Amino acid sequence: MRSSSRRCTRSGCDRPPVATLTYIYADSTAVVGPLAAYPEPHTYDLCHSHAHSLTAPRGWDLVRHDGDFAPPEGPPDDLLALADAVRERTPAPDPLPDRGRAPHLRAVPSE
Predict the structure, then answer these.
(1) What is residue 19's DSSP assignment?
(2) Could you tell me the pTM of the whole model?
(3) CB count, 10 Å around CB of 3?
(4) In angstroms, rounded to a whole number, what is the distance separating the alpha carbons of residues 40 and 63?
(5) CA distances from 111 to 22, 105, 106, 107 (A)
(6) 97 pLDDT exceeds 90?
(7) Region 7-35: what's the mean pLDDT?
(8) Which helix (H) or strand (E) is 66 found in, with range?
């Protein structure tokens, strides 16, 4: 159930939220989905206007819910299902390229 204390997180906007924005950094994807049942860290509540006018950063994909935004019915959270679908379509990058070593780590001789 939506709390009356939740507001659009865009600066200066006091309208009630209808959607939740989540960034999936590993996939360079912004997801605008139905309003999450509960506020979560690192997500952003958006009003109707901001949910429909949002653009993704250059080089990123934007996945937006196709229907009208409505108050959440409760768990399970549709936003998580949408984010999982995005993760499934993008293969995970190889975390250890070149000889299986992490490029930011190096051996340091002991004294």
Answers:
(1) E
(2) 0.60
(3) 11
(4) 19
(5) 47, 19, 16, 13
(6) no
(7) 92
(8) none
